[in-house]
Each structure stands twice: as structure tokens, then as C-alpha cells.
Amino acid sequence: MPHAADDTRKVQTAVLDGADSDRPVFLPYDHDDFDDFMRTRTREDFYCGTLLGGCGKQLTAKRYTDKKCHFAHRPPVHCRRARTDEASADHLYISQALARWLAREGQRDTDITYPDLGSGPGGAVEVRFGAGRRLIRVQLSHLPVAAWEAARAELSGTHVNVQWAYGPHGGLGHGEAQAAGQAVRFTCRTEGGNRVVYVGTQDTDRTIEWTTLDRCRLTDEGIAVPRPVGSAATVVFPLAPGSVAFTVTDEETTSDGPTRLLYQADIQPTGAAVVRARVSLPRSVAPPQAHRLHVLDGTPRLHPPGVPAEGAWLIRADGFTSLPTPTDSRWPGLRPAPVPNPAPEGRRDSRGFTAGTTRVGGEYGHLTPQEFSKLNRSQRRRYWQKVRQRSLAEQSAQAASGKPPVRSGKAFPWATPGITKHDVVKAVRGALVSAARRQVCVGWHTLAEAAGLKPDDLSDLARTSILVAVDHAAGPEGVLLSSLVVSSRNAPVPYFDEILGRIGRPSGLRPIELGQVRKTEQARAFAAYAHPPDHGSA
């Protein structure tokens, strides 16, 4: 192990209330989220918990702007903790979620243990309830089949009812699904700076429908996970991993529910012909490019033609890998679109990408909306870098001269005493929720007024940062309130694409794709906050 000054490990999880506590905390990576995380805590609150396999000593939360925020040991360091990543406390999050859920189901006397399977705590969670005669065992680590069978026999002999559940991966869950028709699985995801517990049912075809524990019921057999309406009549065919390649067309991308997008594509399984189909991918996955050849990751699921697929084959997958070459002998029928030629940048560079300019003008800097819409993904990234450079250069020049700023907008108004980002974000979010309830879009005059500021107090950098903070709290599947914000010309704000990228959504989209995403998110926001009128009020 490294000595004190050399301990550079990125510890992301800790426990509260002491070394032996089972109350986990996850330290968000981003420095903006760090401030909210520490708002109700002190630097004395965190421990490298023994139930995390840690040393039990206190940890210090470290805030960084150039790398991930993380916990650090206090010297001297003599810790042999094996796992320190964001998933290293998932067994504690799962146990706490189960205890809360059982309490809501009327089972308040629960006992939680973490059996050591040879590599310390974390390999399994056992929750006993019903006077200790019932048991839910969540198997998270690998367990040989012989040991699994022995444990099942032992636990069944000492409890009236034992329900086995499994982590998101592993062969034991597959085996139980094949033998019993289904298996219950648990997983944790990072959402809004927290680890959120999900539970799902795996079928024999290895598909899993995830939901939250509060939607489940406790039955005599254990956790009963609800199934989507109509799922029993759905026929789904799993496809061999690495066997399906595809190229996307220029047709419009459409929504496939709140968390996925549909891409029109030509697909070809190995040894078969090319067919037209629709490919469903998570919104968090970067959009596939038309000039690349892609291979679907994991085990894709094939849905035959029917009403949900509108007469076309539908393939759902968790992601894809882009091949380095445009053709491959395994899929000879697929031909991607030609590589796009980059737009000439000579005159544009002199206007839009000039460092040292003392003024950042308008919503688009020195580009018109039409010019901005023509930039490709790489050019937009360079453009925003130059916008930031110009803004920071402007601040530095103004600070050095001691003169009042030429442009009243500050990079970040919370640099002013008495103004905090937390309060600004809270006020803006409240105004956006109010707009969603009224089913309208709003501009920065309304949002700035809600925060007690003037529109000129908010630079484009500050506006982007505020909306990123508003939408980041919603998690990867939440509605995007930033989709309701319009510019003074009643047009979409130009940094909406950047907001998508910074909260983990697909970004660098074509204008038609970006417009579709914005319309979809507006509809979701209006639906999420719609409420019937209060007819009882005078």
C-alpha cells in the first residue's frame, strides 16, 4: 500500500456514524455537486467502513475542479480495502433499501447480515424478517455451483421461506431463470449524485425489466416484481452477442419511451441478408454516425413485426461498438454513408474562434444561429472552448484595469458575496416547474427575476451551468426542464446540446435530431407536471 503522501486512490464511497456503520454515502464526481453534498455534513462524518472491507479510519472529502472529487485517507495510511469505486458500497445500499421496503410492507423487525465469502463483506446480503424465519439472500459476487447448492440446502433447513436474488451479472441468475422460469436481480445506478437501487425479473431469454422496490409487493414467495402491461404476450428473441452489425440512415430519429431512442437502420446478422429495421438504444449512448459500421453490444433482443414496431423489425440493445473500418467481411452487405467533408472554416474561424476577443456577443457568440447550426460536433466543441476562453479573458482584463465591465453579464454571479449557486439553481428550477405546470416555455428574463437577478447578470456560461445543475438532479431518465427555456427571439437556446452532453445524454446531434429531442423533452416535462385545475378555489 502507498504511504500517506503517495495515497492517490480514488475512494468514492464511505459510511456515516462510525467505522462499523452500514449507512453508505457516495461522493459525487463533479465539484458543483460536491458543494451540495457537503452542505449538511462536516469533514468529520466519513469513515472507511469495515463493512466496505476498509480500515475503519476517518476519510476526508476532497474537492477538485480538474479531476474527480473523492475521499482520501488521513495519514498514516494502512488500508487493505480492495474496492473503492462507486459500486463498492452497493451491498449496503441494497440492504438499506430492502429494510425500508420491508418496513413499508409491515415487516419492521429485520436483521441484516453480510456473510464473508472469502474476500470480505460485500459478496452477499442476507435480510431476515418474520421473527427470523424468512430470508432474502442477494448474491452479488461469484459463487461456485457446488457452494451455491450447499448454501441453498443449509438456509432452506433453517428458514420457512428463502428467496434468492442476484446482482446484475453472473451465471447463477441465468441458471435459476432457466430452471425456474425467472430470477430476481438487483443493480444500483448513479443518479443525481446518489446510488439508486433497482430490482428486476430476468426471463429465460435473459431480458430484464428493471423497476424500483416501491413498485414491488411482498408475497409468501418473497419479492413480487410487477411486469409491464402486455409483456406476457410479447415474443422476444435473444441474438448472439457480436453477431449483428448495422448502419443508420438519414431518416428522423424518434422516441422509444423516456429512456430510449429509435434509429432507422440497415442491419445484417452474420450469415444472413441485409434487412431494414429499427434499432432502440439508450438515450445515454452517443448517437451512431451514418458513415460508420457498428456492431451491437451485449445480447440484442429481436422483436418481430407488430403494432409496437409499426410493421418493422425492432432490435433493442444496450449499446454498440463502432468498427475502425467502413466495411467488414462478416457483414458484406452493409455500406455506410460517405465520410462527410468538413465545412470550410477560414472566414468562420476569424469570427467565431478568435481568442482574445474582448466581447462575447449574443446567444451564439459571434456566430449567427444559421452559422452555428452548420457546425459539426468537433467544431461546436471548439466553439464553446473559445467562448469560455474569451469570457475568462474578458474577466481577467477587467480585473486588471479596475474599470467597470463593458458587458454587465458576469461569468458566474455566485462569485458575488451573498449569492450562492445553490440558491440560484433552486430558484430557477422552481420557475421552470411553474412553467411546466402552466404548460408554457419561458425566457431568461423570467428565470433571472425568480433568482433575484437581472438577465445581464447571467453570461452564457452561467446559464449553461445553472441548467446543467437543474437537469443533473433529475438523473439519466428524468425530464429535462431546460427544454422549456427559450432565447429572447423565442428560439431554442444554443447551448441545449451542450447541456445534454454534460448530463450524460446523447449530444453533438444534428439540428433535426436536437429539435426532436427538445420537443420530446418538452412534452415529457408538461406531462410530468400537469395537474387538474382546482375547481374548489374561489
Overview of the molecule:
By secondary structure, this protein is an alpha+beta fold. It has 4 domains: 4-73, no CATH class; 90-233, no CATH class; 237-322, OB fold (Dihydrolipoamide Acetyltransferase, E2P) (Beta Barrel); 349-529, no CATH class. It has helices spanning 31-38, 90-104, 145-158, 171-180, 346-352, 369-373, 377-401, 421-438, 444-450, 460-472, 496-502, 511-529, and strands at 13-16, 23-26, 46-47, 59-62, 70-73, 111-113, 124-129, 134-139, 161-166, 182-191, 194-203, 208-211, 217-218, 223-224, 237-238, 244-248, 254-255, 260-269, 275-282, 294-296, 301-303, 313-316, 320-322. The strands form 5 sheets. Strands 15, 16, 17, 18, 19, 20, 21, 22 and 23 form a 9-stranded mixed sheet that branches. A hairpin with a 5-residue loop joins strand 18 (260-269) and strand 19 (275-282).
Keywords:
538 residues, alpha+beta, OB fold (Dihydrolipoamide Acetyltransferase, E2P), 9-stranded mixed sheet, 7-stranded mixed sheet, 12 helices, disordered N terminus, disordered C terminus
Number of strands: 23
Euclidean distance between termini CA atoms? 70 Å
Q: Can you give the helix content as a percent range?
A: 25-40%
Low-confidence region ranges: 1-8, 230-234, 307-311, 343-365, 403-410, 532-538
Name the beta content range. Answer: 15-25%
Computed over alpha carbons, the radius of gyration is 26 Å
Tell the overall outline: globular
Arithmetic mean of pLDDT: 77
Q: How many independent structural domains? A: 4
Tally of alpha and pi helices: 12
Structural class by SSE content: alpha+beta
Largest sheet report: 9 strands, mixed
